[in-house]
User: What shape does this take?
Amino acid sequence: MSERDEWFDLARKLDWEFSYVDERAVFPEDISGTPWLSHAVWQDWDEPYKTTYTEYVTQQSAKDAAVHAVRDAVGQVEDFQKLDPAWLNALKLHAATLPLAEFAAVVGNLRAARFGRDSAWRTTANFGALDEFRHTQIPLLIMHELVRWDRQFDWTHKFFHTNNWIAIAGRHLADELLTTSNPIEFAVATNFVFETGFTNLQFVGLSAVAHAAGDRMFETMVKSIQTDEARHAQIGHPVLRTLMQHDPEYAQALVDKWFWRSWLFFAIVTGFAMDYLTPLQHRRQSFKEFMEEWVLDQFQRSLLDMGLERPWYWDQFIASLDWYHHMVYASAYTYRATTWFDFVLPGPEERAWLAQKYPQSWPSLEARWERIEQRWQQSGPGVEWHSHGATPVGFCNLCQIVLCGGTPSHNTAETLIHDGRKYIFCSEPCLRIFAQEPERYTSHQGVVMRILTGAAPANLLELLRYFGLEQDMWGKDVQGGNYPWLRAAEERSQ
Ligand code: MN
Ligand code: MN
Assistant: This one.
């Protein structure tokens, strides 16, 4: 076999001129993306980290072998049974939202592997598609073992196939971000914003927390996945650089849109895990501290390098770091039966930690938890419905998440009349994203619309079935309200 150096530069770029069709017909703007530029503009597209197929296969097979070795050692039901019950729910949340979204990313990468505008870009996207297929299979494989022990783990595969409200929100995001986006939007949204901007939070933050919680399987899985992300995420920079030269306004609009949408997603999956579902003794930093260290600094530097501005809503985003995931968690706790994982009622020690980490917001959030605590004291342990909501709530017409923007005293919901119909949004950024491209979003059927049109039942118990849930798998308080501190507080008050 010839040496890599002898052939690699020649093989990396395999573009040619078309003799009997127009370049625009080979790469139609509708599917290749906007702005449409001739190949001459894209021909210097360059990925900093270069690999050959042989190297790729060799490395990936070694990575898989390492994951399998850890799985053999600590990936059995008995190993997971040793973990803290609260932490297992961080795992259930991630296990469900991850694998089929990764599969959607296979589709996005394959579109770029055909319709990306330079051959090196297409090849890198092809490797990206193989990566994302691996990210689909690893969690499916690891969690499958656990289904016979706990049906909530069945949601690893089932989640995206259900009408659960979080799955409706998840598909709304994943379909636009991954399944349907053209290679230019995909490169900016997925590769630059989502993968370079946010997944450090998963790799560094969450794998450290998993390590502390003694969950070596999850830690290994996340780290192994992240080494792939770091390689294919580099597609984003060279695409964005060209976009900045030819349509900087569009580049900025894409970054603004996708940073907000990514933020809402990570605030829930990672915010819940770090500030509520990780046992207190294993926490090192708050979610906000992780965001500041691993997202804000680095993302702002990347924006600066690219000549981009911070998103226009930056102040609102910074303010939401203190509130948003706490607001969603409190709402979700009181509607926990609508989910497939269990929730922790933060006790006095957890609340003291949260008060110290979130001095601005926690005092008014604390009041909500005190009311929930009183409900549990009235009902006694095991009576889930006494501290549970009874009527369906409102959802944002863009992100499809419960209207939880702002603070308990100042909700940031906004409305918009479009074509005679009234829409409601959790926040100004969600409204502006919708208003910018209403044709993308107006036909979507959210939970409330489904209920109003009779497609989904209004009765909560029937709605749970519509959400794909049965009693033995729907979300509960992880201790059934049976916390030693809660009983002690009860005795004191008697
Ligand atoms: Mn991935
Ligand atoms: Mn990826």
